[in-house]
Amino acid sequence: MTDVTNAGAYSDPNTTPPLGQTVPLGLQHVLAMFASNVTPSIIVAGAAGLAFGSAEQVYLIQMAMLFAGVATLFQTVGVGPVGAKLPIMQGTSFAFVGVLAGVAATQGLGVALTACIIGGTVHFLLGGVIQHLRWLFPPLVTGLVILAIGLYLIPVAIKYAAGGAAKFQMEAESFGSLMHWSVALTVVVVSLVVKFFTKGFVSNAAILIGLLAGYALAFVLGMVNFGAVGNASWITAIQPLPYGFEFSLGAVVAVTLVSIVSAIETVGDCSATTKAGAGREATDREIAGATYADGLGTAVAGVFGGLPNTSFSQNVGIVGMTGVMSRHVVTVAGLIMIICGLIPKIGAVIASMPLPVLGGGVIVMFGMVAAAGLNMLTEVTMNRRNMIIIAVSLAAGLGLNLVPEAVQYVPGVLKTLMTSAVAPTAVIAIALNLILPEEV
User: How does the protein's chain sit in the membrane according to the entry (predicted)?
Assistant: First the structure.
């Protein structure tokens, strides 16, 4: 699956490979992002106190799949100025997990999803000005923000691997048991072996295969309960505003700030896609269209219980690997995700996955988020100025998140922002980058 005959013939986004290649290539895009797409919904649901495997959690997983597909169609098919009309796969964004988990835990899912709707709308409006804001987010700032996201999430991964996280935990006496860690480490080891000792289709599905291996071991150990699968229906009943519409200024501001970072990530993915697939820079229209689609996908998903969407970088790698730039291949991938999202039994199977299985997967995924940030920082000259910006931004952003009591007397809106890890890191990095003089 790594090679497509005459791939150069498909460097035009509007061309389509033969059907026998289009469908498998589309499925490959789905496999590369499937596990990453549903994980944020599971984490936020846990933070909100939803029981693992409950009907509410299954619904959130369904919406993650359904609206990843819908947002992908916004990108690949497009409507007017919306959509880059490039092979860009959309999925639920990890960047928002820290903020939304905190909001869901303290103020509920209604507040969190309302913030997603409003933040998505602002994100959509950024499409008209995004090309003029790129100077605010050089690799130093963007890399720092992505690194902060990964570092913030890694403790969550360890808690899941040990058997619990946030408000929901398995039996206290079994937390950190050898049984839990054997399952989590099976996922990690299998994922790494498959990734580096296989090629193409199988290699790109390494995380998914690792999760399946951990799932199988957990089943053998008696950790899997399929009760929710039997009770789940075959067709999703989509419900607008399932948790109501509850406005919180702090939540909206925090989500909107992350939306700006997400928009910049999408600009990077858009540029990387055209570079990898066609050997050219992305046009202003493509960048604007990609941003419009990002925001619209997030806002629409929020209305029905889905979390914010963004472009998935791992799928950009598939475009570069295959040389197939056809947007219709990714359209097929979007349609597959929509079909998965409309079948609740698929979500129930995912929700039956024990926490240590998920923990093993997110150890790799969250570590890769941090590594992606480090990779962006390699483009930065490590002089004293830039090292100070990195040091102060990370220390303040992660420090306040780890010790939220340090700002316990700060008003609610500011406290939400200051303890979100991502927002303070981004604000401090942008400010210092603008204020501190460049070194000669």
Answer: Multi-pass membrane protein
DSSP string spanning 409-420? Answer: TS-HHHHHHHTS
Q: Which residues contact 79 (CB under 8 A, 6 or more apart)?
A: none
Q: 375: exposed, middle or buried (C-beta count within 10 Å: 0-12, 13-18, 19+)?
A: middle
Query: φ and ψ at 228, to 5 degrees?
Result: -70, -30
Contact 353, 160 (CB under 8 A): no
Q: Which residue has the tokens 């570079």?
A: 275
- Given a cut of 50, the residues of the chain with pLDDT beneath it are 1-7, 166-171
Residue 168 has φ and ψ, to the nearest 5°, of: -105, 125
DSSP annotation of 165 reads E
C-alpha angle 333-339-343 in degrees, rounded to nearest 5: 145
Q: Are 186 and 213 in contact (CB under 8 A)?
A: yes
Q: What pLDDT does residue 419 have? A: 78
pTM of the model: 0.72
Nearest to 69 by CA among 122, 27, 106: 27
Distance CA 262, CA 294 (A): 9
Round to whole Å and give the CA distance between 375 and 369: 10
Q: Residue 324 — φ and ψ, nearest 5°?
A: -95, 110
Can you give the pLDDT at residue 121? 95
CB proximity list for 78: less than 8 A, separation 6 or greater = 84, 85, 289, 293
Structure token pair of residue 42: 């599971």
Query: Would you list the domain boundaries of the chain?
Result: 10-435
Structure tokens at 99: 């903020």
The angle at the Cα of 183, spanning 181 to 189, to the nearest 5 degrees, equals 95
